[in-house]
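Input/output pair, single chain:
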Amino acid sequence: MDIKELYSIFCKYPTITTDSRICSRGSIFFALKGDRFNGNLFAEKSLEAGCSYAVVDEWDDDNKDDRVIKVDNVLRTLQQLANYHRKKLKIPIIAVTGTNGKTTTKELIAISLSRKFKVAFTQGNFNNHIGVPLTLLSMDKSHEIGVVEMGASHPGDIKELCEIAEPDYGIITNVGRAHLEGFGTFENVISTKGELFDFIREHEGKVFVNRDNKILFDLSDGMDRILYGKNDPTLFASGSIADATPFLEFDWSFFDSSYRVKTRLVGEYNFDNAIAAVAISKFFGINAERISSALEEYQPTNYRSQFMRTDKNDLIIDTYNANPTSMKTSLDFFTSITTTLPKMVILGEMKELGAVSKEEHIKMIDYLRKQPYDLIYLVGSVFKDLVNSEDDFRCFENVEELIDDLKREPVNKHYIFLKGSHSIQLEKAIGHL
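Output:
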């Protein structure tokens, strides 16, 4: 079956699922497979559960079922269908990538644009070779604009996603030292994120660029670009930080009017994400008051830059991911906060750093030795193996050990910052703080 035929079926049954446990009636099941799973084994189950069709690449030809569509490669077919659908939609697509802040930026853009348009946008962090096609296939004719987050862990990842989504506009939030296990070098991180600019340059689209980021400014040289940044009224969108103790407040101007935006985002490092959303929303004609109110209403979730006050402590929770760049930036911010409470940090190991993992964790330990924190708790085997006996740190192999310690010796009346890679699961400790 070619893509045109499959697309005609999709138009009648426009709900896609890749999970046989979630099969709404009239949906199409795509039997994806990976190292630890094979969706083909659940194709019959998906049909029994309510799916109208199942797309497979492994099937006994003697088992005749008109509801089973056999293709050469299910993943490739999903991607081709998404690209075909994207072309049919004919709506502007904004692609968002970057080492840090892309999910927050994507959500700020989406909530602000929704003040004027019906917006489809990436849910959660469905930003890879499966998530991007699913995002595109969730769009329908009622949508007026799409915001697609793109993640990468290897060279070529962004190029592949661009070829599927064909974005008209793009933004790279920043580039940092993350996923080095897959990228190999920081230079490869830069070139991979730059694949978004490469695609848009080739297809004569437009990019939004942080003027304060030299790497991104240079990467976008010669492109049709909209510049935004800090403390520069000559830029298309600019603002200044008014406060961040802990919630970010910033001022920005729209012609002769000035606006104070009081966000629910923790940390001055979120300014770049917020002003990027201002620039894109302004470009698409959103009223200044609506932009400001949208950014104020946004409530971060999934333990990204969240503030929480418990019965015992004040917490800043940023446990969704961590890399050397984001950890250092957020710790600098935490150090700068003025408070009467003693400060404590709970840091989880930084994953996917490959050959430089030991080096980067040593740098972080050296940094921590110079900070005026009352308590420092480190979680993960890499941290545990590198800390010296004379360091006044508490180290734990995993979050379960940390929780056991917190039960034995509760921490009270502290200002606590938690950050670590998602797989460390530091959020499990929140209930004990």
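The CA atoms of residues 310 and 431 lie 9 Å apart. The longest strand covers residues 257-266.
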